[in-house]
Fold these 4 entries.
Entry 1:
Amino acid sequence: MSGSAPDRVHPGVDDRSNDSATSRGEAIAAAEAILRPALGQRLQPGRSIAPLTSFRIGGPAALFVEPEREEDLAAIARAVALTGVPWTILGKGSNVLVSDAGFPGLVVRLGRAHQWMEREGTRMRAGGAMPLPRVAGGAAAAGLTGLEFGVAIPGSLGGAVRMNAGAHARSMSDVVETVRVFSITDGTGSVVPAEEAGFAYRTSAFVRGTLVLEATMALREADPGTIRELMDEARAWRRATQPLAEPSCGSVFKNPRGDHAARLVEAAGCKGLTHGGAQVSTKHANFIVTRPGATAADVRAVIRDVRARVLDLFGVELETEVEFVGDPDTHRV
Ligand code: FAD
């Protein structure tokens, strides 16, 4: 069997994986010393992040922080610049697989102050921590159409913008007008128009160091009954086709050009393929579902096996849509 492509490194992360554990430990301690006075209880060392993800597996964050105010963001940028601590951004954790060893650095997740939304004429503006289904619901309640596709995508608005999340042949790039961001790497804020957001299939320009703080979406007025029908259809389609009762990250692989990852995985005979507590769903071949006690290593083993079989049989290298947080071999916290 030919070798599969390497796991894609989580692109929103600066993990400096060649650094020694000692220097990483020193950087974490130095970052904690900088962040503690600024953030107080909003800085949590050793916080378990598994419960903050839809897979519900993975180890702790060496440091976890939920910025609320602009000063918090400035302190995070300062700590990163001065210490070189590895860092990553977490939204609602519905598209990530956290390593069993956790993340040996700073995990940044927008706090509650970033959960808000407001209507401005035919536009909706919302904070990056706002769940996308709630933004879709808010738009519907305001009689605005365009966001129905997001009603059952379980991410945050920030994560959805970053991933250019989509369904039913629509995606965030169809509605986003502007994005307000903060750069963790240079400590500055800016407003990015959609034309400069680099939106493409399940990706955007917001991959390295850019925290999505808020987005403005341009929508259209429509009959509220029609909007509700579209949302009900979207929910019913998911219930019928996806294993929603079991932990997963949604689609594991991106669709290759002109094909569907689920079709290839099923045609390769991988439905039901199991490693430890992780299994290719028997309901939807592009979902990996887990049992209690499953590890990130189990999920990675399933991913590797599926990729290798699809490559072997069809010559197609599946690329993961799920992003990996922390490295299983080099990171120990
Ligand atoms: P996370 O999983 O926390 O992070 C994903 C990426 O976004 C990471 O790189 C992270 O660093 C980055 N990120 C998160 N928040 C921010 C922020 N504020 N600023 C900058 N970067 C950020 N996706 C689809 O596109 N379509 C679907 O139909 C769909 N269905 C799903 C169904 C299920 C049952 C599940 C579990 C997942 C599904 N997903 C789907 C995947 C997932 O919901 C989306 O990718 C979502 O946009 C991820 O958002 P999040 O907040 O959970 O991001």
Entry 2:
Amino acid sequence: MKKSTFIAVALMICCMAFGQNPSVTKEVLGDHNGTDVCLYTLTNKDGNVLKLTNYGARIVRIDVPDKNGIKDNVTIGSEKLESIVKGDPFGGACIGRFANRIANGKFTLDGVEYSLPINNRPNTLHGGSNGWFSKVWTSEISKSCKYPAVKFTYLSPDMEEGFPGTVKMSVTYTWNDKNEIIIDYAATTDKKTVINITNHAYFNLHGVGKGYVFDHILTLKASAYTPIHATQIPTGEIRPVKGTPFDFTVPHTIGYKIGEKYENLEFKGYDHNYVLDKNEKVNATVYDPESGRVMEVITDQPGLQFFSGNSAMWKKSVETGTKGVNPRSSFALETQHFPDSPNQTAFPTTILNPGEKFKSRTIYRFSVKKN
Ligand code: BGC
């Protein structure tokens, strides 16, 4: 471990046009298996803050104003090494190699069957027990960007968690003056493989620890979703949402139909992949009338997992006992390819070949609506 636990490297990014001083600072929190775990604080021109760590290339804090200008943190996370490592494994992290579930931890590529760790019986979830969420990534403050930005890179060895090919992965988070978190993913492989990347941030627009998210109004520009079997693997059907409790094409609260008796919904709440409509400028919007905060999601990915933070096991997630980590007191909107795509040939392909470059962008944009 480094002698000083607090090494701040401040990069002042000149932004003469605005006369402000957006910045990125870096603090070493300690080491994990011999590698420094760092906390990055990105401050934009209005003084709004995004915090990131290289443990899982993860978002740990987002401070944005409400309709009265009062700032609060809207994502679940921790700034302490121990609770980052021992907390919810997925919260805020960059998930790979394969976000969401792969049925029975198996898939076949060019006639070869690959077996993955089963960490969500009987399936593989979010890249396996030791997926990218549990790795300490290499990180650097990006100097080429006029906004605060941090680039994380990770070299995933051949057969890591059972997946073929050495994958060179990077994710860059940019925090611009429009309160947009721009997430840029890039990956290459030296052998044919499958890849599905997401960010797994949990949000509560009241502010973390300030109650449930039932009253948040959600719009999802998705006319269809992928129904699932009991173990949460898609049946293969692409089902229109019209006339079902899954329809958020017309905005309504998360809580409005969450308790309805409908296949897949009655016990668990929302935990489903939506098939995003094409050519939408904004794919999802969440509005909290109480705080006035709005979050928009923009992505080039074909799917989005809407997870209403359902399970009780999830309660143990981060820190201790704040309301923010109770079931249904946060939600996730995970942009992605469809779950179990390697086993479902009718779904958009997740195959990455040598010589190809996987590139993808997702934006989480925060604003306020004054009613
Ligand atoms: C999945 C949930 C899972 C959660 C864990 C989500 O992406 O869809 O089923 O419990 O991740 O954080």
Entry 3:
Amino acid sequence: MPPALAPGPAIVFDRRHLLGIEGLSAAEIDGLIDLADSYVALNRQAEKKSSALRGRTIINLFFETSTRTRTSFELAGKRLGADVINMAVATSSIKKGETLIDTAMTLNAMRPDVLVVRHPESGAVSLLAQKVDCSVVNAGDGSHEHPTQALLDALTIRRRRGRLAGLVVAICGDVRHSRVARSNIHLLTTMGAHVRVIAPPTLLPAAIERMGVEAFTDMRRGLEACDVVMMLRLQVERMQGNFVPSTREYFRFWGLDYDKLAAARPDAIIMHPGPMNRGVEIDSEVADDIDRSVIREQVEMGVAVRMACLDALTRAARANRPADKGR
Ligand code: CP
């Protein structure tokens, strides 16, 4: 049997669900990042299994496509010894007209411990969480939140820079449609970073400054002396109408190339949540620059962060829900 892990850092996270970063305290965010950091070493050794979640069941329910998030939740659950089921939405009864809520309640009746849900509608995952008695993790809902992406971004930055507080982070591109931007803004401002958003006027949400960020429409001005450059994909699947004249023109003004990057600090790191569209929001050479780009490291940190979230939620459930004790 795989060994249980030596106890990691105590977790300051006592919630049933992880539905967003908004509303989490700095201590809760730190607690999850610290726990994730403790899982990085396990993921780098030959024997990657622990038995921390042995006997637990996790169901991945993705109503939108995913490479990184779905795979890393599956790996995270398996590395912790849980049983992980990937629901194939395309071949499920959703295709016969079953509603999201009925699907969730059906899965809930099978007594999973965690449902990991991605849905194209903002708010759908929170609604679903009200109907089930297991833990729910938001793996991305519309343009609302993608909390585990923000946590893995924060872990990546903290490992590279040693801190989050005081750093200048520029989030660039399609901020308007981006759940990654929203979760990162909540997390980074809570942790004391200075956040700038840079986008064409059509892709900046109205009154974005109310989220505690500075808004720019000029890349070079926005990137000036920043420590972290976080690029975003054009979320065409969420666009109704034309928001940019052409991808060629978009790249010319808002795509990250070495010329625009020169405005940032010489040691600024380059991030992208993926999937990337090379030549649209980021130059291919910049994306692959081994001295500056941490894009692959973000993917690696994704597994550790999802292990931490699954671990923390199931620990909180064990401690707080008397009904669980007999399960
Ligand atoms: N960053 C992210 O959510 O990627 P996937 O869509 O591949 O999961």
Entry 4:
Amino acid sequence: MKHFKFNKYTDIAAMILLLVILLFMILGGCSLFQNIEDESVNEHDENLIVVGVSQLGSESGWRTANTESVQASFTKKNGYFLLFNNARQKQENQFKTIRSFISRRVDYIVFAPVVETGWETVLSEAKEAGIPVILMDRSVTIEDKSLYTALVGSNFVEEGEKAGRWLEKDLEEKGRSEKDINIVILKGTQGASAQVGRTVGFSTIASEHSNWNILDQEYADFTSAKGKEVMESFLKKYPDIDVVISQNDDMTFGALEAIKESGRTVGIDGEITIISFDAVMEALEMVAEGTINVDIECNPDQGKYISEVIRMLEAGEEIEKEYYVEEDVFTIDNVTEELLNKRTY
Ligand code: GZL
């Protein structure tokens, strides 16, 4: 390990600087959490339900909309005190945040698990502390389902199947049901339930078609930059790609840039069919112009549903284990009406 050598003057300066920084942090009340409301609200105000939310990151337009839906629901006006933290895609940060929520004795913990596995210990600690945990957006893979109270999210396997069924229909309409179809897949964050589910769902349908050749599939982390990088590598390796399955719109935006730079064409009049997921506004506009052939919606507007579950729990009502939000499939045939519908994301 490399050691940095300081001379004695640098040592003293470093110590003074460190003390000044520590002083500012203590006086400034620096903490892990951002309280969305003004600081005048005290989390121990008996009338407010204290909700600790660990959001996994801010990697995509979808995630931004998901965060906005949480912040719009858990307000003081609605009877909540919100503690919010962005884990920046790191499970370790989510562990730390959840443990802080436990030590602050919040009333509810809500979190979007960045990956499916590794949650048993921290969820057992929350259960020990008697704090109900609600999963948002993505799910977890654990033996003991009592470690979380409910999930409000999406059925990702169904989303993947919708993509496969749409491709079946599209090929049939084009008279290409029996033709060899070369497919590449841009996958989201490895081990995220959205990635796992969409992959399983699409692969299930693809396995029914021996003429569908999945040439390659690579993780591109749900980001536009990685989506472009992976698509560039696919285009170099495979001159005859017919279909791109991109597991979120941000990766699609990057992939479209790469395809455009390669000189190939996309969409309803192009050589390469683009199948995307999320259906954020910017992508739906591309569906309307024919660049994206189909967008499988994944609804980020989950805050109000989570708030409803909390209200039911507060009232002692029976709740379901899983709540899936309503989701649609958008093509050029129905997207215009949706865009006129004052969509919020
Ligand atoms: C899906 C969500 C995924 C989105 C991506 O519910 O977990 O994560 O599809 C986001 O845009 O990054």
